[in-house]
């Protein structure tokens, strides 16, 4: 159905020339990373403050006595030993690690200030104005971190969240207020980068169709009517192809053979009776589906579609083709990281087949398995 890659020119070209541009989806996490990096780079004075924080964190992190002193200061402040925090050093290729570094530094700033004040070779502590700037910067970057975390999951539907999340982020930045001039400039730069990089997302048919077929969003977050209309036309084309390939009678008989025993089948039929009664001869499945109220954000999308299968049988097939697509390449990168953590120096003779089994066992939800 689709290929999700980062923005590397060689990757994009390979997919587009081999399978077509319509099957390519840019990794949403990488795009957010570019938004954050470019916005920070264009914000005057921000990189210097971040580098200042990074130097302090490095100084504390590389010295064992400083780490122990930081822990002791927290315990003296009535913080339990097991809840004492450590500084976090960022990884420059991952912008969200920088966000976590700033958040943790703000939490530990009072203790760090007391410690490095007595150290001759320590970097100077940030001023109150700089700390306020860091606080505002972290506040401005919070929506980007939430988007990255939400889109990088692998146990629930993510592809249909892209368009709604961009819409929500734009609205958040319109209402977000800060006191620092640097943070205000960062907010403007982030808004410009979002509009630049995500302005045409609705015209990506895979994203648009997936969003429309998510019962939680449907067409609520579409800003461009022509893109929404184009996606609806594409869905109707899919439905028409399904109808021409299989007759309605054979489809219903096959479905009845595959359905397992469901005690609540009668309740589900009653729940959708009102929708069925409203249907007229001129209404197709998509029109009927879009006219129904949206679901809450907490529902399981795939389970909801299983319940709606009897009302929208052809639309169900389209949804099952699009919704399982992942929004980012993070799950595959995470799998490579797990493989690297499994093949350690003391386990370097593991065969590929055994490694695959170990990775499979560790990926099963609810299992208590350690490599």
Automatic annotation (TrEMBL):
Compartments annotated for it: namely: Nucleus
HAT C-terminal dimerisation domain ranges (all copies): 285-361
InterPro entries associated with the record: HATC_C_dom, RNaseH-like_sf, ZnF_BED_domain_contain
Per UniProt, the keywords (alphabetical) are:
Metal-binding, Nucleus, Zinc, Zinc-finger
MF terms in GO: protein dimerization activity; zinc ion binding
Q: A single Pfam family, by name?
A: Dimer_Tnp_hAT
- Give a GO cellular-component term: nucleus
The protein depicted here goes by the name HAT C-terminal dimerisation domain-containing protein
